[in-house]
Amino acid sequence: MDGKSAKLILCFLLLSVAPRAAHAAVIELSGTGSYSKSTFADGFSGYSSKERRYSASVEFKFSAVSGIEFQYMNSTSEVSYQTNVGTIINYYTPINIGYKDEVYSVNWVQNLVPSKWMIQPYVKFGGGRLVRKYSELYPEFGTGQVIQQNSVTGVGAVGIRIFLTRAFALKGEFETYVPNFHYSQWQTNETFSAGLSWLF
Predict the structure, then answer these.
(1) How far is residue 96's CA from residue 90's CA, in Å, rounded to a whole number?
(2) Cα–Cα distance, 158 to 175 (Å, whole number)
(3) Tens-binned pLDDT, residue by residue, of the chain (200 aa)
(4) What is the pTM of this model?
(5) Which of 95, 13, 103 is nearest to 56 (CA)?
(6) Are 190 and 77 a contacting pair, CB within 8 Å?
(7) DSSP string covering the chain, please?
(8) How far is residue 169's CA from residue 161's CA, in Å, rounded to a whole number?
(9) What's the distance, Cα to Cα, between the start and end of the chain in Å?
(10) CATH 2.40.160.20 fits 3-199, yes or no
(11) How far apart, in whole angstroms, are the C-alpha atoms of residue 46 and residue 44?
């Protein structure tokens, strides 16, 4: 599916449910996050990486099993290691490389079981705007560069809610976002995150 077709389908779904969404009886507020860190050293050059992602969303449920979600996602990746900047003589200095992605999206959320079940798997897909900042910095020299890119992006996820009460649930979600709706590259930005949901 190309980017144009995906956007047309998303617009059709939004228009088809707009009248009913105005009478939504349930609103879900969610927050999820994930964090990972790794460090490696071989006695000569050190390597470390950090990845953080968090998201916040508001979902308007226009039926017992379907809803429209407005989501903000922030994803940061940082890598540090020693690099050789010398020409005639080797000279190693730290370099910090970072990616910061901000995704603003509108998504269709579809429960796979009735809403009365305590454990509710679901899927979602949608699209929005991706703002990506790439940085390459040399702390020892105080130099570097920052590049920003803006593009449309597709969003896809599978997740599960485990309700502890009628209005409070634990939430786990395996999610990806793909610049320019290139879903064949879904593994590029995939992650699993966990969080909480409140229903009103």
Answers:
(1) 19
(2) 7
(3) 555 555 555 555 544 444 444 444 589 999 999 998 888 765 545 788 899 999 999 999 989 899 999 999 999 999 988 888 777 888 888 899 999 999 999 999 999 999 899 999 999 999 999 999 999 999 888 888 999 999 999 999 999 999 999 899 999 999 999 989 988 888 888 899 999 999 98
(4) 0.79
(5) 103
(6) no
(7) --HHHHHHHHHHHHHHHHHHHTT--EEEEEEEEEEEEEEEE-SS-EEEEEEEEEEEEEEEESSSSEEEEEEEEEEEEEEEEEEE--SSS--EEEEEEEEEEEEEEEEEEEESS-TT-SEEEEEEEEEEEEEEEEEEEETTTTEEEEEEEEEEEEEEEEEEEEESSSSEEEEEEEEEEEETT-GGGGGGG-EEEEEEEEE-
(8) 6
(9) 36
(10) yes
(11) 7
Give the type of residue at 138: Y
Residues in the chain: 200
- SS in 3 state form for 13-54? HHHHHHHHHCCCCEEEEEEEEEEEEEEEECCCCEEEEEEEEE
CB 60 within 8 A of CB 86: no
Are the C-beta atoms of residues 171 and 137 closer than 8 Å to each other?
no
- Beta carbons of 67 and 59 less than 8 angstroms apart: yes
